[in-house]
Design a protein that fits this description.
The complex is a heterodimer of chains A (312) and B (289). Chain A is built from 15 helices and two strands. In chain A, 75% of the residues lie in helices and 1% in strands. In chain A, strands 1-2 form a two-stranded antiparallel sheet. The chains are: A mainly alpha (312), B mainly alpha (289).
């Protein structure tokens, strides 16, 4: 192992150990919590995994992807179409792979666009997939949605989502310390300079974008069984993508811990207030968002890591 | 013959509305790099203002339009002062301005939409205005739609004329070409930015007022127009007002004819298909040289 690799890997074993320990501790929750609390924990985990995987690519490169809902919805439809012929675990894996494959495909086509263009086209592609699937379902299968029968137990779903979350965090830790992570940070700083210094920017971007899409795909496949009825409007809901971006950026997309903390914060806030005061809740959320962006632009994480190493 | 005329006209009428909404958003983006995702919410606000004033005070909605425009212009100045000024001043790069303004836009979207939900509820509202048919060249149109088309085109052309021939228009174009250069020759950002932001919202408000004459209105009516405006802007090119005008008409026609030749449930697939195709093939817009 060369010396630079050693410096890069410093702190990684500890972070990985912590992640696995936290995962093991969280794994006992199904025996301790009521059904309601467990579904709350599930939603925290889901958004944590979504936000961490989003930040994996979009954090260092400063791309603004709104395609999370597309990967999530495709994963959910893999379950809807495949659950009868495949075991649950396999549909989750397949969902992730479909998400990653789709991301690689659109990545090759659109990752040369930057800034607002990229945000708009990822949003447009999500809607395109949504409406195409609606159309295919309607004309070929003559159905608007699908009913999912023989769903696994809640605890099984919880462990699956927990597994995906731990895997997402571990992957994020490894990517940050790898050559790929450094290439991404270089691309975010100045793409042309990074290329001059020998980074294959296109390959790095497509690879990382595709890798980061595995997790929303797998989560979509895992979470699909939670809803007994699946329709394109609910699983491709652009709100899933928006909320992921909000959580990641409010937490601080450059950091690893920020998105995790803010996903717990947002999920709890949403679950407790949304049902009781739906309009007033979103109204306050709107104000909160504006104030956070204006006065805490680095995200919640910037409150804690201000004095840390500059590149962390 | 009459049928094709009606089809083309219905495409152009929706296209006219798309153009008005998109020009406002495009000016904001082109000048300040503010991707105002809450643009459609201000269109909805304009529609509610028109509906409210018309149903309570019994004023002709056409007379109300200038009032709606002025109100939303002022709202725009305040929103700019409260939310976006700080972003354009403190952000280090253009990309950061885009990302942060997008997030603030989401916040404003939640805020405005849910404030209207709280005030007037989720019901569809509407009133009937000039809903009688008119025959032109063997084709039949509703009078209110022709009016909407006329006002939309007049508003768009008026704005283009302002940009082309007035001092402030020249300043805006200079600022779009080169922000630093424009500041060097004495163009004042701190007045130009709020004015253009307000003008964008005023256009959205007028579009909303026009829509309330034709369709029923609801608090969630704005979002689809934001999305359509983004598509139109991409077609016409970011920052180009005339591109947005042509792009709006083009999208209206594509939707009208596309739905006729395929089927209505493909409308959204068509719009987004056009968007994706244009972004991949000509990312600078159809009319870019």
């Amino acid at each position: 192992m060369s010396r630079s690799t050693l410096t890069r890997m410093r702190g990684v074993p500890r972070a990985l150990t912590l992640t696995v320990v936290a995962g093991a501790l969280l794994a006992v929750l199904p025996w301790l919590l009521s059904d309601f609390m467990l579904s709350l924990a599930l939603s925290c985990l889901m958004f944590a995994a979504l936000a961490v995987s989003w930040s994996m690519f979009c954090g260092p490169t400063h791309y603004l992807s709104l395609a999370t809902s597309a990967f999530f919805g495709l994963g959910a439809y893999v379950t809807a179409w495949g659950l009868e012929s495949m075991p649950y675990g396999l549909t989750v894996l397949a969902g992730g792979l479909v998400g990653a494959a789709f991301a690689a495909l659109i990545g090759v086509a659109v990752l040369h666009l930057r800034g607002a263009y990229f945000a708009v086209i990822t949003f447009g592609l999500t809607e395109l997939v949504l409406h195409s699937i609606t159309y295919v379902e309607k004309t070929m299968f003559e159905t608007a949605g699908r009913i999912i029968s023989d769903a696994p137990e809640n605890a099984v779903i919880y462990w699956t989502v927990l597994g995906i979350t731990v895997l997402a965090v571990a992957t994020a830790i490894l990517v940050r310390a790898s050559r790929l992570g450094f290439a991404l940070a270089g691309i975010g700083g100045d793409e042309e300079r990074a290329q001059t210094l020998g980074v294959n920017a296109r390959r790095a971007k497509v690879l990382a974008f595709s890798l980061s899409a595995f997790f929303p795909g797998a989560l979509g496949a895992a979470m699909a069984v939670r809803w007994t009825y699946i329709e394109p409007m609910s699983v491709f809901n652009p709100f899933i993508g928006f909320q992921t971006v909000l959580i990641a950026m409010v937490g601080g997309a450059q950091t690893l811990l920020g998105p995790i903390v803010s996903s717990v914060f947002f999920s709890l806030l949403t679950e407790f207030l949304r049902l009781r005061f739906p309009y007033a809740f979103l109204l306050v959320l709107g104000i909160l968002l504006v104030v956070l962006v204006l006065y805490l632009p680095g995200g919640l994480a910037s409150l804690f890591v201000r004095r840390a190493r500059p590149h962390a | 013959m009459g049928f094709w005329l009606e089809l083309a006209a219905s495409g152009l009428i929706t296209g006219g509305i798309y153009a008005v909404v998109a020009i406002g958003l495009n000016l904001q983006y082109g000048l300040m790099r503010i991707m105002n995702i809450s643009h459609g919410e201000f269109l909805m606000l304009g529609a509610y203002l028109t509906w409210l004033a018309h149903t309570t005070l019994k004023i002709n909605p056409i007379v109300l339009l200038p009032g709606v425009a002025v109100t939303l212009f002022l709202v725009g100045m305040v929103v700019y002062r409260l939310c976006f000024r700080r972003i354009s001043r403190s952000a280090p790069t253009v990309e950061v301005i885009e990302a942060r303004s997008l997030l603030v836009g989401f916040g404003l979207m939640f805020f405005v939409q849910n404030a209207v939900y709280l005030a007037w509820g989720a019901d569809l509202r509407g009133y009937s205005f000039m809903a009688e048919p008119v025959d032109i060249a063997g084709a039949r149109f509703m009078a209110n739609r022709l009016l909407v088309f006329g006002v939309a085109v007049a508003a768009s052309l008026g704005l283009l004329a302002v940009l082309r021939w007035t001092m402030i228009g020249k300043a805006v174009r200079a600022m779009m070409q080169s922000p630093t250069g424009a500041q060097l020759v004495g163009i004042d950002t701190s007045t130009l930015h709020p004015v253009v932001f307000g003008a964008g919202l005023a256009l959205a408000g007028v579009a909303g007022g026009l829509l309330s004459m034709v369709y029923e209105i609801s608090p969630s009516m704005g979002e689809p127009y934001t999305v359509t405006a983004l598509i139109v802007i991409t077609l016409g090119g970011l920052g180009s007002a005339i591109g947005s005008l042509l792009g709006g008409f083009l999208l209206g026609l594509v939707e009208a004819f596309g739905m006729h030749f395929t089927n209505p449930s493909l409308k959204m697939v068509l719009s987004y298909g056009v968007l994706v195709a244009v972004l991949i093939a000509r990312p600078k817009g159809l009319f870019a040289r």
